[in-house]
Design goal:
2 domains, four-stranded antiparallel beta sheet, three-stranded mixed beta sheet, 7 helices
């Protein structure tokens, strides 16, 4: 008969390590004292493909749920994943105190207290790369989904200089600067899209 330790899953390990880390890192901080631990839940996502974690707010129950990605846990070293846990703890605190969360000055101040990054790295390669067409500008951005800036780049501008940009389908190298180019690339690639 297997012991209860033999039946623990990767998700169990992930959640246990995250909870322990959260308590340890918050033990002597203002944020840790302000967090309403009884109104904090934890979950694992087996489906997340790019976000290592997120924090959801249930206003009706006044509960923050930190959702951590199993794929990110498997892909990252613990040091990187622990930073994701700290990042989401700041969001949980924001939700509990203010009913909303973001990455502004308030987040930045509390994140510094926990040595949490302002933004968490993606653990998957992006499908699309946006690149400014102005020779003097080196702005680029990445996207994982075919959002409006990907499908209709003519309606948007470079994030640095305001110029036009091109979108590249990373796997194929195909590029476009207008909605018709997006449709053409998608059609030409077929199943490789």
């Amino acid at each position: 008969m297997p012991s209860s330790a033999d039946s623990l899953t990767l998700d169990d390990e992930l959640l246990a390590r995250a909870r322990i880390h959260a308590r340890e890192v918050c033990a002597e901080t203002d944020l840790g004292r302000a967090l309403e631990w009884e109104h904090l839940e934890w979950a694992v996502s087996a489906r997340a493909k790019r976000r290592a974690g997120c924090c959801r707010w249930d206003a009706e129950r006044e509960v923050a749920t930190i959702v951590l990605s199993r794929r990110a846990y498997e892909a990252y070293e613990w040091k990187t994943f622990a930073a994701v846990v700290r990042h989401e703890l700041v969001h949980a605190w924001e939700y509990q105190q203010f009913g909303w969360a973001g990455h502004g000055d308030r987040f930045h101040e509390r994140a510094a207290e926990l040595d949490a990054p302002r933004h968490c790295p993606s653990f998957s390669e992006p499908r699309y790369r946006l690149c400014c067409l102005d020779a003097g500008c080196d702005w680029t951005a990445t996207r994982h989904r075919a959002s409006s800036p990907v499908t209709t780049p003519e309606a948007y501008r470079c994030g640095a200089c305001g110029g036009d940009y091109a979108v590249e389908h990373v796997d194929s190298g195909r590029t476009w600067t207008a909605e018709s180019g997006y449709g053409g690339a998608k059609s030409a690639l077929g199943e490789e899209w």
